[in-house]
Amino acid sequence: MELSDSVVKGLQTLADPAYFGLKSFTIFTEGAFRSLLSFPTDSVFDYPELKNIDQALLKHCHTAATTFILEVVKQNADKSTLCSCLEDLRFDSERVEAFYVLYQKNKANVEKLLSSIDRCPPHITDVSWRLDYCIKNSHVHKVNQPSYLISFNTENGKNNGASSELNFNCTLEQLQDLVGKMKDAAKSVERATQL
C-alpha cells in the first residue's frame, strides 16, 4: 500500500509510545473513525485524554490516520495486509490489535460512506439553443440585443441514467466565453488521457 511521506510520518508518530500511550492511542483511533462517520464532525481535539498532546502533532496524526483508514477500507484490506502494513509503520502488536478491532467494528459504515460519494457527475448528452432578440426590457428601455437560450440535457450516472435539463440565458459575449472554456476543457481532457 502506497502512502505519502506525510501520512507515513503521522502514522509513525501515532505508533510512538512517547507521544501516545496505549489508552490515548485507542481513544485517538476511535475519534478518527468517529470523525469520518459523524456529522457534524466530532473532533479529536475535544477529548480530555488528548489535551496534553501538541495540537499541531494531533492534527497531523489525525489527518494521517483518517487517510490511512479511508485507504484500507477502499482497498478492502484483510487482517494480514492491514497488520503487516501497520507493523511496517512501527506499530507494536497491542496497537495493531486495537486498530484492527476498531477497523472491523467500523468498516461497514466507512464503506457506506465511501459508496455514497458520487463518482459520476452529470454529463451533457445533448445541447439545443435558440436565438431571441430583445427589443425592450421591463423598464421600457430599448435594448436591441440578441440573447441566447441554451438548454443542456444531462444524464446522471449515479441515478441509473436519470436525465435532467439545465437551461440558461446568455449574451453573445458570454456564449463565446463558454465555448472557449469548453474547448480548453476538451483539450485538457485530451492531454490528460494521452499521459
Alpha-carbon Rg, integer: 26 Å
The biggest beta sheet is recorded as: 3 strands, antiparallel
H/E element sequence: HHHHHEEEH
Terminal CA distance reads: 23 Å
The secondary structure category is alpha+beta
Query: Count of DSSP helices?
Result: 6
Work out the strand percent.
15-25%
Looking across the biggest beta sheet, what order are the strands in? Answer: 1-2-3
Number of strands: 3
Give the overall shape: elongated
Number of domains: 2
Could you estimate the helical fraction of the residues in percent?
40-55%
Family: Belongs to the COMM domain-containing protein 3 family.
Pfam families: COMM_domain, COMM_HN
Protein name: COMM domain-containing protein 3
GO biological process, one term: sodium ion transport
List the helices and strands and how they pair.
Blueprint: H1 5-15, H2 22-37, H3 55-74, H4 79-88, H5 93-115, E1 123-136, E2 142-156, E3 162-170, H6 172-194
Antiparallel strand pairs: 1-2, 2-3
Task: Explain what you see.
It is built from 6 helices and 3 strands. It is of the alpha+beta class. It has 2 domains: 5-115, no CATH class; 123-194, no CATH class. The chain has a 3-stranded antiparallel β-sheet with strand order 1-2-3, covered by helices on one side. Helix 1 crosses helix 3 (55-74), helix 2 runs parallel beside helix 5 and helix 3 (55-74) packs across helix 5 (93-115). It is elongated, with a radius of gyration of 26 Å. The two termini are 23 Å apart. The mean pLDDT is 86.
